[in-house]
Amino acid sequence: SEAPLATAARAGDIEEVRMLLEVRADANTVDDLGETPLFEAVASGFNDVAALLLLHRADPCKRSDAGGVASDIVADLSGRLLLDFFKGAELSHEDKHAILTEGLSDPEVRDSIAGRFRARGMQEAYQHTLRKLRA
């Protein structure tokens, strides 16, 4: 039987996903194939659901039993960029803008992702300043 979170992710039901995560559903729960709800969301192009899962610690590097990762089956560029960002990649300003304007439609999710973009930028600026001070 499939976990309720995976079912909601596959259906793109962001409100159900949000509710399940709020009651501490495991964002990394696996199905019979070893796939997580993140696989379901990105394969179906539900980027808001994928972003919400990632914000709740879904592992974008988790491998299925077949050895695949979510980025192997991602439906579109915004989904791929989201996964890359949560894997630690630096995104261009244009890529971030595309995610926020084209890839995400839920205002709460969009605001949370924008906050992550800002936080990462501040952290990078801080690290750059430290490197300059040590030089």
TrEMBL record:
It holds the Pfam family Ank_2. SUPFAM superfamilies: Ankyrin repeat. It comes from Alexandrium andersonii. This is Ankyrin repeat domain-containing protein. The keyword Oxidoreductase does not apply. PANTHER family: ANKYRIN REPEAT DOMAIN-CONTAINING PROTEIN 39-RELATED (PTHR24171), BRCA1-ASSOCIATED RING DOMAIN PROTEIN 1 (PTHR24171:SF8). GO terms for molecular function: ubiquitin-protein transferase activity. InterPro entries: Ankyrin_rpt (IPR002110), Ankyrin_rpt-contain_sf (IPR036770). One of its GO terms (biological process) is protein K6-linked ubiquitination. Keywords: ANK repeat, Repeat. ANK repeats lie at residues 1-32. It comes from the Eukaryota.
